[in-house]
Amino acid sequence: xxxxxxxxxxxxxxxxxxxxxxxxxxxxxxxxxxxxxxxxxxxxxxxxxxxxxxxxxxxxxxxxxxxxxxxxxxxxxxxxxxxxxxxxxxxxxxxxxxxxxxxxxxxxxxxxxxxxxxxxxxxxxxxxxxxxxxxxxxxxxxxxxxxxxxxxxxxxxxxxxxxxxxxxxxxxxxxxxxxxxxxxxxxxxxxx
Length: 192
Known about the structure:
mainly alpha
């Protein structure tokens, strides 16, 4: 990513030519970029494993995918927590903070809630087994009778997460196209 600023005219004021200034494209540090793409990869794997595990049911392949889904869910939760801590740490170090859209905040919240609700559901149902004899610790008391409800909520929120990811990708593409068109001096014309 380039850190070049497209315009040095403050936002909201007119440039000397009478055109509105171009908002600079947000740039991220290398650790932030690595954490972003790691999160994106984990979310993709987690959702794919969850969907296929559900479709395969109680088959050996389905059980294997469900265990993988749990592992990737925990890794996703840990990565998002690291991202939140990294963002908080860099904010305290005085790095220039740019406002984050509501979509980013909503993505973080859902990325934290989805794995926690799934974890609570498997804790209730005592289905916390991973690989090689390892199990997740219980975060919800076993046998409370809410396991199926929690896992249904987990699934609905996972599909909401997919919707938010699609909106995030669309916004990123729109910002990229707009920034490239503005820096080249061209404008987007609607096609008939």
